[in-house]
Prior knowledge:
5 helices
Amino acid sequence: MHRSAPRLARILACATVPMVLVAGCSSGSDDKDEKNAGGSARPGSPSASPTVAAAKFSKLPDVCTALSGKTVDKLVPKAQNKKGKALPSADTNTSASCLWSGLDGFKYRSLTVSLKLFHSDPGLGSGDRRAGEYATQQASRAATGKVTDPKTEKVAGIGDEATSVSSKEKKDGDEFRNQTVVTRTANVVITVQYDGAGYEKEKTPDAAALLKDAKSAAKEAVGAIAKDSQSGT
């Protein structure tokens, strides 16, 4: 059977079209059916990238100014360096610690304030959640090692969450009382370590009094972080 001239011309024209377009060169009702089928198909859209809540704090304050001179005088009488000693850090933008220590007669006191900042990361989670996980780890560390009789308690009224760890430790024959308060304020973790001992005939410091002071220092540090954030310095 002879093909009509228009149909033959159409077939020949399609033979020269690149392969990616051949589907558009059928005729008659097939054209319409395939066109309709193609119109109903939509390429899959890429999945949305995971998002996390933005972190509240973007930087840390100067850790050695987190406590007032008055607080340092009270907690560490006759501190060797009232302004504190900044401890080494691999990245001072996200981690910083300051130490005060002193001997008043035979009363020894040591105070360390450490700050740890966590940014929000789509692959790791929000800064708040990461900080919470780190705070739990810090509290666990304070209750392990060479310390004895560790007592861990939740503390209310300091930051978003806080935990205290009280313990005893013997160093070179002297009894030490160690108090650690780990506090999370949004995406920043504050770890206050406050230790005391009585040398020679001096009495071992009262653990409850040390803990009270450690909590007070943690609360002051929380305020310092908020103030620094508001000032934008």
